[in-house]
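Changelog note: in this version the structure field was regenerated for every chain. One regenerated record is shown below for reference.
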Amino acid sequence: MSGPHADGSRPIRRRLSRRRLLSSAGSAVVVLSAAALIDCDSTPPVSIPTAGGTRIAGPSTPIAAPTPSIRRGGAWRIALSADPGSLDQAANAGGSAKVAGAPVYSRLLAYESGPGKPRANFSTVPDAAEFTQAPDAQTFVVRLNPRAKFTQPIERVMTSADVKYSFDRMLGRAGAMSQSGDAPLLSMVQSIETPDDRTVTFKLKEPFGAFAPVLADPRALMIMPAETGKAFDPARQMVGSGPFTLKSYEPGTQLSYTRNAEWHLGGDRPFLDGIEVSILRDAPAAVSQFLTGGLDALSIGAADLKRVRDGVKGVVIDQAPPMQIQNITFSGLDFEPPWRDVRVRRAVSMAINRDAMLDELFGLKEMKAAGLDVPYMWDGFLPWGITGYSLEAKQMKPDRAASFKFNTSEAAKLMDAAGWSGGFGVEWHSSGAFRGGYPLNARLAAQHLREIRITLRTTIEDYGTVFLNSTIPGNFRGMAAIQQSLGEPGNYLSAMYLPASLRNSGKINDPRLTDMVTTISANTNREERRQQILDVQDYLADRMYNVPLPNGPVLTAYQPSVRNVLDFQSQGVTSPIDQIPYYWKAALSG
């Protein structure tokens, strides 16, 4: 909830200093060893800094006695750019809904975070689980924390039946529920068994190399009580076992949360008493609210950098590589004539001036002038913030990299060779819900493609009613600008390229690609799996089923009173469990 995150780079306090953007390759993303991927050791100790060093607590031990300087109280105040609509975590796969639900609902596991930990970290620690074990390569056993308890009006201990119910809801097997858009993330599960109230056994269809990170991903499985839909309406009310409880939801205006004093990982945590989420569709209004102290954190652009730095004394500005991907996606490759030909898809990529877009989108020249050493990174098929696993376009083989280089004359030749010398016109689908570089990215891409006689008729769609339910699942004609944030590296590939996935927006069905992605999913060898992830990106660079658009670094501004935000970071919407319980506010003088 605190904004996009990536490596462990140091903050900028008052003045901006040059910093290394990326940590060493391979260390910023933890893809666990063969044993840990399946027999995940989800019982490492939890530690927090104290005045006398580091206090260690076991996975079921509440963390109490915080550092004496920590001040309990206050609310974490942030903004969403889009209303989540339905709060039902199974029915609504939208990012805003996940941000809204993450403070309330527990997952079985959480991503590890803390001082010295990389932000793009896919190793796991317990949440509602007390511990896990894997007796064989296709069995994953979870023992539930006996202290995990649902809040009012349910007010009872979580059981294995709740986990199975939540899984069934995701897959459309509970009542009138239809399958969730994120159900493919759980497609490796054959069945769930509940031998007793505290034990859940996942039977996998085949060995799966990253099942623990899947259980830590809020898109895959937030645990909802079996009374959901009977005791409360999950579209408007949330009842979970997480660190916060939902106090109120005013659609289009705000969500308000209060501290869960009985949180099973609590004790003194969360240090904050609540969370206040304002729904601010207007970006300038959000910046103004931050400047007047109404928000504690806000993602900002380079154009706002000086204003924020000058307007808030002691502001902390954090810079992080992106943890999401933006693509030009083609509708139904099997039946749309222009981009059925790979030469057209390559021409589209070559018509994009990525360096010019990065300057205009993210103000890289302004950042450099302000003291930030920002590289011009061209996204490939994974976000370049996932270091060690993303194959950045400039690092590809020369013939692959050529398709990413700005070259309108060669792009025009490819269009001619494919029989489209006169060009064509199609619908161009995007959503107004995204901030950052996305809106300008979509506009600039349309301008660049006109140079090779591709005319895009822009349609800006409502995120909740159209873009999420129609465009992302691939029910559109023409081309679309689609942003995805999918966590663990393998999730991007399985979600965007397997034929059965509802996030396969281009309805891509390439048997060789399908075989490559399913092989990655089953591999439990860390280094083999990492190389396979790199190899599939090389293949995607050849086929260009999606055309990656450039993503620049994310700047997040924090009020000077906020503490621990730079030490406790993880990827995206998981922050209410992985991060926010550690945040606190200091009294400022002067």
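Spot check on this record: The longest strand covers residues 129-136. The longest helix spans residues 526-543.
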